[in-house]
Structures are given as C-alpha cells and as structure tokens.
Amino acid sequence: MSLYPPQHHQESQFKNVIKTIETFPLAQLISVYENKPIITHLPLRYSRNEKFGMLSGHIDNNNPQLKNLKQGVTSTIVFNGPDTYISPSIYNTKQLPTWNYIKVHLEGKVNRILSNDELKMEMIELTKFLEGSDQKYILEKEDPRMEAFVNYVTGFELEITAWEGKFKLSQDKNKKDQTAAKQALTTNYTDVIPIYLDSVYTNHIKKG
C-alpha cells in the first residue's frame, strides 16, 4: 500500500464528494495543449447517473482550452472546499503546525458538446441551481440576450470517470483535537473573507 497520500486523509464516501461539488461549484478545469497546462475557472453543475455522475458547463469560444474539449478527451477537474492554517495552540495535545483542507480531484471525459438549444436549457438549469431553493431570478429561454450568448460560448458535458477526495481534517488526532480543528476551519475560513475582500476591492478594483 502506498504511503502517500495518507489513507486517513482520503475520503471514502462519494456522497461527501458530491456535497463538496454542489457547495463549492466553481471548478478548475485542467488539460494540456501543446505541452502546456491550461487551467480554466468555471462553475459546473453536477447531475447523477448510474455511475459517478456528469458535470455540465460552458466555456468561452476564445479560450484555447476549447481545443481539448473533444468527444472522448479526458480532463482533470478540481473543486476547492474550505481550508485553513491550524495552530498547535488550539489542541489539547502537543502538535506541530499544519494546514487542513478539503479538495476534490476528478477525471472527466467529454461526453458531448451541447447544441445551442441544449446550451440554453443548461444555462437555465445552472442558474436555477446557483440561485438555490429561494430562487430570486429565473432565466428565460426566450430572453433575447440568450440568443447572442450561445454564439460566443460552447456548452459541454463531462462524464466523471474517476474521483479522489482529499479531506485533511486532523483525522490522526484525538476527538477533542479533531473538534478544535473543525472549529478553527469554520471560524478562520469565514473570518478572513471580509478583511481579504476589503483589501482586494481597495487595491485592485479601478475606480470610475
């Protein structure tokens, strides 16, 4: 048995992988073109089938990664859950500093390229999913902006062929320390966002 990755950091429940995909749907689509890795960030919608499921999305026609999205071609897809630094100060036992995280790695094979009508319906379904149970906006197929939209993007469907859940959550620690690490992940991940966004909006966003 391989020593890496540690087995206690490998997620065994596919339902937790699905939960991560559906909670953090912005994916990294990774492929290689002309010996160079290409990475695109895009939301993907998960749907179930008799195997591992499907991922649907769309990509700008000017994106060079589109050349890799051909029938049967496989890409790597990464979904990022929460992560944080874990200080030894939170533990009841003596430990070293570490970083905890939740990541999902998938292999997906292009199942088909969507027609314009299928792309419109996929956009409607993606919007419905992203809006959530309290849907405040409904995308209409007859919206004239949709007709222009489908001319500069390509819709696609990926079949998930392999999956790996990397859930590093202090599983090798005792129960009290695991609980403390969970609380740190919850608190640190949410607390840092307002400070980070204030900085980004101040230093990056151009003012009119």
UniProtKB/TrEMBL annotation:
It comes from the Bacteria. Pfam families: FMN_bind_2. InterPro entries: Split_barrel_FMN-bd, TR_PAI2-type. This is PaiB family negative transcriptional regulator.
